[in-house]
Specification:
- It contains six helices and no strands.
- It is mainly α.
Length: 176
């Protein structure tokens, strides 16, 4: 009888550990997907900003500021990426929040479509970053649990880091 109970405890413990390991694995998959979505949203925002800068709808100085910020964000290495993306957000706010910017651009041929595309790209970055950081928080919490640490259920995966940028949209594009 004792052997049966001990065997049942061992089986239940193994099932629980296996379930925790599977859950942690699913969290890592979710985290990777969220990171890819964030990367895609940032890339899309840079592409739309470059399209706007090259559209000849803006004055040359404004186009240069936007193009330089988008280029820096695109070329930034992993350690400088957050700073470069924040600079792009700041440049966007400085340009789009100018007096009558959206009205002037809307009056230009193709300008309204470009504004809508830019607004969607900016909003997607905000949502993607929030989703990614949420996934990081949940995964970090699961990795810090004693069972995950003791049994190394996370394997050799890196401890996930938050992606902190200034992604505040221009006031004229704020969705909240």
């Amino acid at each position: 009888m004792i052997v049966l109970i001990a065997g049942l405890v061992v089986v239940l413990t193994a099932v629980y550990i296996s379930w925790r390991a599977g859950r942690l694995d699913r969290m890592h998959i979710r985290l990777e997907l969220a990171r890819e979505a964030l990367d895609a949203a940032l890339m899309r925002r840079r592409a739309v900003v470059l399209e706007l800068a090259g559209s000849r709808l803006l004055d040359p100085a404004t186009s240069l500021v936007l193009a330089a910020a988008a280029h820096e964000a695109r070329m930034a290495g992993p350690e400088d990426r957050e700073h470069a993306e924040s600079d792009l957000s700041g440049a966007l706010r400085a340009v789009v929040d100018q007096e009558r910017f959206t009205e002037k651009l809307s009056e230009s041929p193709g300008g309204q479509a470009l504004l809508e595309e830019l607004g969607a790209a900016v909003a997607k970055v905000v949502y993607s970053r929030r989703f990614y950081n949420s996934a990081v928080g949940v995964t970090r919490t699961a990795q810090r649990r004693w069972l995950a640490r003791v049994l190394r259920l996370a394997g050799h995966t890196e401890y996930p880091q938050f992606f902190e940028i200034d992604d505040n949209p221009p006031a004229t594009m704020a969705t909240e």
